[in-house]
């Protein structure tokens, strides 16, 4: 792990200690000098604010640094978007990334609880958003169900990390919710559960409430052109024409949802 997070953690610990110490220093000066309380107040604000500002700056740098490290790992992602079958485990780059996050947050136990929680949630949200962008980026013009299943293994690894409680203080599945958009999108496609999605769309209890129809259509279009070449939907035991017709029908309904939403 880079030494920078460790340095930032130490800065936060030190400035927090100094900030608390200001109170005792100011009381000591008041007692020995008999300075009026309103005069001390000016010094108190300056001293406390200085250390507080330094601490906040270090906290923000931690969040930024973590996101940058996540981006570095994601640059190592090398998905075979045309894979016929998924691998047997999560991608190596993702396993290494989760290992880095675990070791980092183990150090964060020395930080104030809120700082550690914010850093962890920020990292998980950034990872989730980046994975979604990776899946939907324009350069990925085609993908197979096998590729999507491999991607799902990686998201499951992220969810397991969130469930493991990398930092204390989160209530229930709060941290897992950082990956809810990915989870619902992947479940919809892997289970091919369009009848449920289309029937319940717009209802607050919808199973796929977090799946935007525009996002779903983008992903569906990527799978459309691979269905004939790679027999993507073989598990449905339909001929190629029926499978293509099914995709076209779903795509048309998704466009209808999008148009009705914007009208």
TrEMBL record:
User: Where, by residue number, does the polypeptide cross the bilayer?
Assistant: none
Any one of the GO BP annotations: Golgi to plasma membrane transport
Q: Does the keyword rRNA processing apply?
A: no
What region holds the Exocyst complex subunit EXOC6/Sec15 C-terminal domain? 7-222
* Keywords carried by this UniProt record: Exocytosis, Transport
| GO cellular component terms listed in the entry, alphabetical order | exocyst; membrane
Q: Which domain of life is it from?
A: Eukaryota
Q: Which family does it belong to?
A: Belongs to the SEC15 family.
What is the name attached to this protein's record? Exocyst complex subunit EXOC6/Sec15 C-terminal domain-containing protein
